[in-house]
Amino acid sequence: VSRRVSPDGTVIRLGRRMFLTGVGGALLAIPVLPSLLSEKEARAGTTNNKFFVHMRTPHGGIGVEDMWPTAASALTQTNTTLYAYPIRWGALAAPVNGSGTAVISNVLSAPSTVLTPSIVAKMNILRGLDVTTDMGHNFAGALGCFDVDQQTSPWPRATIDQIMAYSPEFYPSLSGVRERSVAMGINSGSYGYNTPGVPASGVSTNQTGAVLSSLGMFTSLLANVSSSPSASARPPVVDQVLASYNRLRNGNKRLSSADQARLDQHIADVSDLQRRLGTTLAAGCMVPPTPTTDNLSLMPMDGNPMSNVEFFTMVNQIIAIAISCGSTRIFTLSIDEDNMGCTFTTRPAQGQDWHLNVVHQATGVAADMSLVAQFNQVFFSSVYMDMVNRLNAMSDGMGGTVLDHGIVAWGQECGTVTHLPFSMPVVFAGSAGGFFKTGNYCDYRNLNRQLSGDSTTGSESNNLYSGLIYNQWLTNCLLAMGVPQSEWAETTHPGYGARVTFSSDSEYFFSNQGFSDTDCYTDAMWQMTNQVLPFLG
Amino acid sequence: MRRTALLLAPGLLLAVLANCDGVIGPAGEGPSPGGGAGAGSSSSPDGGFGPAPPLFSCAPSAVPEELPLPRLTRVQLQNTLQFALQRAVPSDAAAIWAQVEPTFAQYVPETITPAPGDLKGGFTRTNQTIEQNQIDTMYAVGVAIGQALTSTTARMTTMMGACATDTSTSNDAACLSSFIQSWGSRLLRYPLSSDDASFYAAIAGSTPVDPGAVQDVITALINAPETLYRVEHGTDDTAAVSPLSAFELAARLSYQFWQAPPDDTLWNLAVSGQLTDPTVYAQQVERLLQDPNAYQGLDEFVIQWLRLNELPPVDLLNTDPQFSAFAGAPLPDDSTTGNMVEDVVSAVHQAVHTGGTVSAFLRDNHSYATDSYTAGVYGVAPWDGKSPAPVPSSPLRAGLITRPGMLATGTVTTRPIHKGYLVRNALLCEQVGSPPANVNTTPPKSSAVETTRQAVTALTSSGVCASCHPTLINPPGFITESFDALGRLQTVEDVYGSTGSLLASLPIDTSAVPLVTPTDSRTMSEPAQLVSAIDQSQLLHSCIALRYFRFTYERNEDATADGCILSDLEKVSRSGAPVSTVFAHLVENQNYLQKRFQ
């Protein structure tokens, strides 16, 4: 057992299992070479080997002092021509303090062996990206479906992960692909179309399925197709399941056209299952032995930060190998502290206790704000960076690492003030095959547009500014993954996602200061949502 | 912000909209402007107010929608799988389910989506989306069950007969065919034709009773369209509207009430064709409703209708000094929440079994708590489930809205806003506009100088909140402030500090104008008055008709197209018919017995 000390002094004990799967994922990563493309193929760009990993942490705005770099030297450059206001950036830096902790900010800090200079050079920190509507609670907003208080979205959209998952450009071939995408969580925060990949069928009102089990992920992504010994010579029964649906669909028993349409949807899903069950992993994929332990065995884990971390790193090791092998190239994680029992602190979620009595108070209570920061710092240091380092430890066979071919992004349910959509924090690592420049801290806020932090329900913050539009970030993700605009085109702007606006109830953010939301999020800005974000291109 | 009644008779709609705009003033300011003829209720001879106008009307030319290819819900699927296991290997069914259950757990529960205009609530049944996760999980479950059922010779013998495990191979094909016909027909809920049986038998190939072959057949049957959906072909191949077959009716009824496949009685009546006889059908409806298995459906309906599924564990904060001081001894335990819910659903059970009406259910003030904690909240002894249920001595226990399960919050403070919205939306079927998305959703708390009511009032009396909260949402919640956050009677509101010290005992104020109907501007201070006003308005009678429609038809209503069905059910509900008659009436409606091919 070793010990890790977080910046606030909290000691996290690391068990043996955690050590084995620790930084770099060395034990499992070493044999995995390369990303299963020949060098010729990869260099020629004849196929897509990009990957997308997105992790979303829950409700609870991280205070500006905790989330963002505070050093005045962090933002050294200014551009006044790209937008109608100055935007700033600087080289990302993580100086190491006397405790051996590399520190970008209070939350963005980790042991210097984890947050190394070479990794920092592959990261970007984006500040000042706003969802331009009321947020409240919002599990799917970070990926592009802006619901309001987790109600049915007035602007349903397939989230970007699902657009990628069914994009023929992202997956030009499904050979070797076991799962188009994997969502971890209880509520996935991910929405697809009623008929996957078919926008005309409408956006499903159900979130896509999500799994928690690391063993389950291993089975679906990396294990050999299982079958009983006696059945090993038998054709896969999924063929006959599919046949039973086609038999009904095309038979002579009476069905309505609506019945048939639903059967078609089911048939499409069974077809996809059939394909996946018949998929063998690409040659060269080095699969470790089946894990003997499932992360579910760690539950209940409420109030146990070490178990919280291990719960996710056990998944990271599976996903990193799966990405390297190409058995999936999309992974999303949606953390629900309540239902998972996960706060990365010793204060348990206790159902709604964390939500109501910590998070909702955090804006005004230092102790609660500290807990929210601790949650996110441990997550960043031990879960997010664990995934980043695992992928960066895997060679791509071309002199780079697997990480270089995709992005590992961290998004949040709300901005730096609980419930509010301003400055939704975005952290990501990886250049997506050179699509993004990296090593930047970008501040897109419009410091000429400070928003009112006072509403009828009380003071919210004195640190609210409008910025660039969050849709632009989501669009950048799609473009970085090679998904063309034709697959997600909107009619009102060239970027991805609904062109949402604030309700009249929230107009005070702007009107109290003598302007309106459309002054902040101008049509000109909307018409640039398909542009690479400033300083990243 | 807006407030609308559902579907609604024009007069009432206008009146309600007027309310939401804040036209109605505080109590004592004279008659409300919305109270024109036909709007709201009218005075009745007993000094109360008469029924509100009906919410629904029938346009005979309207054509209801048909829910296409209904998908079994997760609960129904689970019951179906357990039914299939029970029929295959009765003595091992539970053990196999325990083995399979972790795989089935991957099946994502249906999200409850409020109906358009509602902010909360809804029914899992109305979520009919088809998801990849469902297909993947059911396939894995089918494989797992197939493996389990064929894993031993004993199970194969029990399931298929000795022909499956004897040394003879000449009987193997017939053995498998017989199994498919018997077990498969019950699983798929219709008698398989010889073509059907041949199709599934062919999956086994040349070794019909080889365990691997049978496993595949079982996997295919479990994943068959007729297993996962209620496939209905009707009995007329040409008419736009076709009567359902006896088997289709049996499945509809059985899943409606029991959430499970037809039992032997229902199946046999379908086989004989007797189920299509209206008299026999009605008898079966009554049998299914009165059977304890009906709690499977009934409880889901009641829990989701009254949003009891949102009740947090009331023992959650037992270790918190403030909560433990508030709760005192004994503390609630991890079964208390379930017991409180059970008390509410038991009231519905009683109504169904004793011929109780909607009014009786609303006013029923018996305690059906079988545990000592919840009974203690009522101040009575636990009910033994057989004797007449005890009645709390306090007249403040006035029925449904004062049951602990409707009052408890899992914290130290009451939730007048939640209670008020529940009355407005779940009991009166009114819709209230959305709060701002950035609203502070922390429930207002009492303090040493401020009761919960005062805190709620202060929070919601200005800005956009003021257009609906003071007049519509908060008042029904204030009237039950004579109960604390565990549903116990209180005469003062005790406020505790974070360390558990008593900070203050503040006087409570339960006086409010709940505006049960737009014209009923009476001030009330006791739950019984509110219950009486709700009852007199008959809006609950209309509301239960609407909610049960959604639950039964597994979809939200169309105001025009479904008007005749709803109006018909509303009339029955308002007529003073027993609750069971209301429930039965909906499935005896002609629309329920047929399928519309669109």
How would you characterize the overall build of this protein?
Chain A is α/β, with parallel strands linked by helices. Chain A has 17 helices and 17 strands. Chain A has helices at residues 16-20, 26-29, 39-44, 64-67, 117-120, 160-165, 214-221, 238-250, 257-277, 305-325, 337-340, 353-359, 366-392, 470-480, 508-511, 517-520, 523-526, and strands at 2-5, 11-14, 51-57, 77-79, 87-91, 101-103, 109-111, 123-127, 129-130, 182-184, 330-334, 406-412, 426-429, 440-443, 454-455, 458-459, 468-469. Chain A has a 9-stranded mixed β-sheet with strand order 4-5-14-8-13-12-3-11-10. The model of chain A is unreliable at 1-46 and 225-231 (pLDDT under 50). By secondary structure, chain B is mainly α. Chain B contains 25 helices and 6 strands. In chain B, strand 4 and strand 5 form a beta hairpin. The longest helix of chain B has 19 residues, at 336-354. In chain B, 55% of the residues are buried. The chains are: A alpha/beta (537), B mainly alpha (598). Chains A and B meet through helix 8 and helix 9 of A and helix 4, helix 8 and helix 9 of B.
